[in-house]
Amino acid sequence: MRTGFRSAMIAVAVAAAAGAVLWTQVRPSASQAEPYRSPRTADGTPDLNGIWQALNTANYDIQAHPARPALALILAPPRTGVLGLVRATPTELPAPPVRALGAVGAVPAGEGVVEGNEIPYQASAAATKKENFEHWLERDPEIKCFMPGVPRATYMPYPFQILQGTNTIVMAYEFAGATRTIHMDKVGNSPASTWMGWSRGRWDGDTLVVDVTDFNDQTWFDRAGNFHSDALHVVERYTPVDPYHLMYEVTIEDPKVFTRPWKMRMPLYRRVEKDKQILEYKCVEFVEEALYGHLGVIDPATGHVNK
Amino acid sequence: MKYRYVAALCTVAAVSAIAALAWGSAAAGNSAAGRTPEGSGWTHPRTAWGDPDLQGVWRYEAAIALERPSQFEGREALTDEEVARRQQIETEQEAKRLAGVEGAEVGRSSVAESPIRGNEYNSFWQDHGRPRKVYKQTSLIVDPRDGRIPYTPDGKKAEARSAARYGIGPYESFLDPDTGERCLTDGVTAMMWQGPNGGHNQIVQSPGYVTILHEEYRDRRIIPVDGRQHRDIRQWFGDAVGHWEGDTLVVDTTNFLDKTNYEWASVWTRPSETLHLIERFSRINADTLEYTITIEDPATFSRPWTAVIPISRLADDTQIYEYACHEGNYAMPNLLSGARAAKKKR
Predict the structure, then answer these.
(1) CB 3.0 to 4.6 Å from B336: which of A153, A173, A296, B275, for a disulfide?
(2) Which pLDDT value is given to residue B40?
């Protein structure tokens, strides 16, 4: 019975393999063949216009991660000495400031977007990353509604719009109303370091390649404390793979923080809803109470006089 | 809050100064007279897909008061002599500024000459490395004919209260500074022509959209011009839909959020649920955008009013820069802790 089943399976497999060979011969374009060629704008460049969004959990943690109870955690101490209870190691529980959020404040799992899943931190930087993770609530610039930087802006859970003008491509992000101007023609250097970087673009076939420099050291890669210095250099590649998807590949280089360049890769999805627009997310007014509520004469949320 | 990015602003100023030299002297004449006559050789540029092309970096550079100053009461235009005199004053003030003179010493009385209050304080961080352009208009407001904002009695009171507390307070909490000091916005109503340190607007067009990036507060409008209708969603900047009338971009904006509960540096820029804007962007020659805005809001004004604003195109290589206002808003904690300390002292 079992042997017969196995023979049958082998037969099926062989047939399938033969079929696959036959199929690829009949339709060679389906797998290996000419890559997708994107439509062109009126001036002949690849047309990436549209509203795009990442659908992953990279903004929680760009590396592979299991689900966890909260972004801010405390360690419940081991419990011993009571008959019938053995908790030998600490247990992770939501930290008091985020406890009330329950499942809304928990972290969904994710496969990660880092090539090889390893971020090559220098030793001291690895320690900083760990500290950042442990002090997320005080340190993550997203909490303060600061501009998210690049590439984080791309994979935050908000859409962004690519608007291709003459010699200029605007990337308009919903989060914090952040905007980048991609200079497609010759442009001088940035006069100062910036949150969103200084972006120079070019076309490599259908791929938009953006070289981003002149960052400050204030932005992060995710809510897990992955960070960089002001020596960050980002090269992004936006490749249309069909009418509804861009493949986004980004190379991160920062000799002050990492031992070598490393890469992230993820698809971006076109928002196909009719008349979809980037809406306002002016989060400054959402964070003022957290940042300044305790500083004034009174806390406007409670009416209490600040000491 | 308004002091940071001095380095970037200095760069802007330097670029602007160079650009100013390139444009030559002030453009005399009212905006209508500035229209390119037929046969001048200028034709309206078009985008690759055939829309009128408004792309570039634009800035309001005139010294026209929003409301008509009392000395021009009953007159809509300056005489040629007055224009010449005004140009001379601009040139002299410019020389003083380039020589490092600041503030009142420059010789400008601010409110009558600036659309936005506060134009003269701390002039070191402002972008005045240029003579302002002189036009015949005696006020930006062309309707009503008296050139004054037609406030309702309540609107007038709100404006008087705002003027009295500007720069003075009280500042009990973060809700008490004006929206600009909070790094939110100074309002979409005046976005195209306000902001001495951020009055730059970059227009970028793509098929079906006109995007306006305003440097100050990084105010941004992505205006669909593809025939879609207004949606039922309220925003600070409302819901804008545009269409082309000939070479003129017409933008109709409704569905504003009610933010009248916040403090505004200028009450006439505040949005309410009844605010309705109609804007017309007409490129009347290579370097001038005639921007007309009609503002209707029974919550603040007794009737609609219209301003016509000549806006100048800057040199092709002009950039707008990142405006990280909230990210570096050291003024807010300092203001609040200062107010708290002052309260304790009393």
Answers:
(1) A296
(2) 76
